[in-house]
Amino acid sequence: xxxxTPQTDLEEHFKTLGIPAVELGRLQAPDGVHAALLVPDTAxxxxxxxxRAGLAGGRLFTPGGGTGRSFTLAGAHSEISMALFxxxxxxxxxQRADQLSTQDRFRIAAYIRAYFGSLAxxxxxxxxxxxxxxxxxxxxxxxxxxxxxxxxxLDAALAAANWRPTHDMLKRLGIADAWLRDELLxxxxxxxTLPRGVAVFFLRERAASLGLGDAARAAIQSGGFEILAExxxxxxxxxxxxxxxxxxxxxxxxxxxxxxxPTHLFFALDVFPQAPDAQTRARHPLLDNGRTxxxxxxxxxxxxxxxxxxxxxxxxxxxxxxxxAAIIAGEILGDPALDQLEKTVADRLAQVAQYMDGWDAVxxxxxxxxxxxxxxxxxxxxxxxxxxxxxAACALHRGMGSSGTIWGQVLEGxxxxxxxxxxxxxxGFHLRADCNAPSALAAIEHLRRxxxxxxxxxxxxxxRTLFDSLLYWAESPAPVIIxxxxxxxxxxxxxxxxxxxxxxxTGMPRRLFLKGTPAHRWFWRQAVHPGRTWxxxxxxxxxxxxxxxxxxxxx
Length: 555
Description:
- This protein is α+β, with helices and mostly antiparallel strands.
- The chain folds into 3 domains: 10-187, no CATH class; 198-351, Alpha-Beta Plaits, CATH 3.30.70; 360-430, no CATH class.
- It has helices at residues 9-16, 49-52, 87-95, 102-116, 119-123, 131-140, 151-160, 167-174, 178-187, 205-209, 213-222, 235-244, 278-283, 290-304, 322-332, 335-356, 389-401, 441-456, 463-471, 499-506, 510-515, 518-534, 539-553; strands at 22-29, 32-38, 57-61, 71-72, 81-82, 198-204, 226-232, 262-269, 316-318, 360-361, 369-374, 377-382, 410-414, 419-423, 430-431, 474-475.
- The strands form 5 sheets. Strands 10-11-12-14-13 form a 5-stranded antiparallel sheet, sandwiched between helices. A 4-stranded antiparallel sheet has the order 7-8-6-9, sandwiched between helices. A 3-stranded mixed sheet has the order 1-2-3.
- Helix 4 (102-116) packs across helix 6 and helix 11 runs antiparallel to helix 14 (290-304).
């Protein structure tokens, strides 16, 4: 039963080409025989391979699930793809491609039946498998022949041999498989859960070797997550986590270079989680907090900024849901540390709930705070780990109010609770929570006047404060700025923000904002800044932009 079996004719065919291969099964279709095979990620196999192998058609899969060699869900979930096997299992099968036993052959067939329903589904072809051959294989492996029709029994046998897919892979397969979703996943559901907003960010080996850990940590924190715990993995720990967590199967994905296995984990909390939009949910149906994906992209951008395109890699992975995060925390941290993590999360959420109860959210929360309304008051509630910023913001606004600028009146501020209350300017007051486009020119001009007035009153505003004021500005007939993030007496603007950040928020360079004339700023915003962005969007966008500029100049 554990003795090596002869290789199949298909495996022999690829062996002559110098490529190890494992046949996953074959079926008879009206146009001939179709088959599925597992081959290495590095295998170079041209089109027409199935015809040259004497097949009517077939599918190739790899341990990493590279482009075109992964399993894809059908219908509305066609954007979701994954490797057929957990990476360690796929690699192990290929290492023993010429030594597979009857037990191995049975487990391959059982795996496909238990977790994918049928071979026809992975081959993507309507056809029939030889039932008698499958029954004989089960009996040769020491099982009853009827096991081939019992998915639960197959799963039990595979789990005993450590062949069950990772939990996150089963969750994705369960999207389109009622038995997996309603029966198996309920049976193996984790005993402990964490609230929505908890996520785990995995720093991968190549990023850690380049010393990018601090940059990753800063990107997580700047995205509004509080890091509650972090841990470096031992080589054995990294190997185990690579087996138990899908992580895109830790391959190179769409990047030129592989990022390697996970080596450092950040357990983080977002107290203001946001439901993903419809477009994001179509691509990531298990995602329970849209901000997790946004921060993962922010980390990638920060870490790859100075990496040449030909050497870029995927430096980070993240969990999709708090349930997935709870499983990872249980595996890595152990019960005592998980108990402390649960307590910290509960304390943070209770603190936020205390000051949100009875208030209505004005807009999606930003990276540092959320705006709330209630009883004629506009409340600026900071994230708990940034609560001490409230005192500086309160003092800054009171000082600016005394200088004669148009600011909301400060009613109350609490450093301990982390909030500042202002008089509510009314329903015509629209807050901006994201930096998707430059702030309105009117708001920028108003902020410049406010900065000048504040400096006259000896209130020094640093660049971080100004930048965040632009991000969280309020637009009304006379623009009102409420939202300075804090006050550091550094003697004015010190150049702490990058030019790219300045252009994203103001639509102009820093120097032009500070020293330029209103005409210079108007021209840059109306012509130069749009021209920097439409050029990369193709000729149609260019024609539209030129037409807009002509209409503007002919007024």
